[in-house]
Specification:
The chain is mainly alpha-helical. It has helices spanning 3-6, 16-42, 53-77, 82-103, 105-108, 110-129, 132-135, and strands spanning 44-46, 49-51.
């Protein structure tokens, strides 16, 4: 039996904290989808400035859809690149949120700007804590 055959993939072997994180990521993406019309018109912060329309759509597609989908694929299939991928896209999200705290907090309010910072930091902490799961890949 090869190593590729002995490593179980799918939902069952995923550690519970990563399962919870996966569900939260799906809910986050669904929330972004439902809020997309507001983001296109009202804009969203990108490194200290507000972007609208197609630029806002691009940010949402990368940070709220492509990033989580890539991570969820890596999680499901135990790809070793899952942790670096998560740190890249969540890190970008975190940097953008921290810049927003410093630059647009007065326009959006402290809570809506700090919530993504806290959530992103918790997501990264869980992924780092359970990073060994990805090392067991084929």
């Amino acid at each position: 039996m090869t190593n590729a055959q002995s490593v179980e993939k799918g939902w069952r072997p995923i550690p519970m904290p990563l399962k919870v994180l996966a569900v939260l990521m799906v809910l986050w993406s669904l929330g972004s989808l439902l809020n997309l019309p507001n983001l296109l018109v009202g804009g969203l912060p990108l490194l200290g400035v507000f972007v609208y329309g197609p630029a806002a759509l691009a940010v949402v597609l990368v940070l709220d859809f492509a990033g989580p989908l890539g991570f969820l694929y890596a999680l499901w299939t135990r790809k070793a690149w899952g942790v670096p991928w998560a740190f890249l896209y969540i890190g970008l999200f975190l940097i953008n949120s921290l810049v927003a705290v410093a630059t647009v907090r007065d326009k959006l309010g402290t809570g809506p700007v700090l919530a993504p910072v806290v959530a992103s930091a918790l997501f990264l902490a869980v992924i780092y804590w359970k990073r060994a799961y990805f090392r067991q890949s084929a």
